[in-house]
Amino acid sequence: MKKISFITLMLLAVTSMSFAQTITGTPHDMSAQAWNTMASNKLCGVCHTPHNAMAVSQAPLWSHTTSSTVYTMYTSAQSSTFNATPGAAPGGNSLLCLSCHDGTVALNNHIGNTLPLGSTLGVAYPTTTTLVGAALTNDHPISFTYDAALVTADGALRPITTAALGGTIATKMLFGGKMECASCHNPHNNQYTSFQRMTNNASQLCLTCHIK
Known about the structure:
three-stranded antiparallel beta sheet
């Protein structure tokens, strides 16, 4: 039992180190912000906590307060441009992204922070292009099912069996069969800027799913 526990702890430590190496110095590195008053774990602690985590199934050991905002989902005036059935609300890991990026929850609202949750003293909110807001009508649609039926109906989407990111669209870009924020973004790696999961030079990221 002790051996298994030790191995588990070592794996967690290595995983944490790999995340830190890619997050450090990126916009998701908030360790130097004045409002980040934790005595330790300033780098990861805004989103994650090793103890007493929130009951959020989409992310391990989640720390940041989630939003209770009612979102306006994507719609298109031209029905031919969006053949999917939009979800009634963001789902999966998209809600975790929006807990910061909808601008309604302060960045300091996380477990272990010494400021009162909800405090506006010395805290920050996303601004400019990082502020998605609650109206998702002008952003890429999320939380819709991407399957063979949608590919057929749309006519300009690649099959979910198409190679992508070392696997396929189905295995590497969909979550529960749905397109979510993390389909295109990796919050732990900013190698391609904007936390994109691959380069978008010559629209390569877009063309992974779209045929244009």
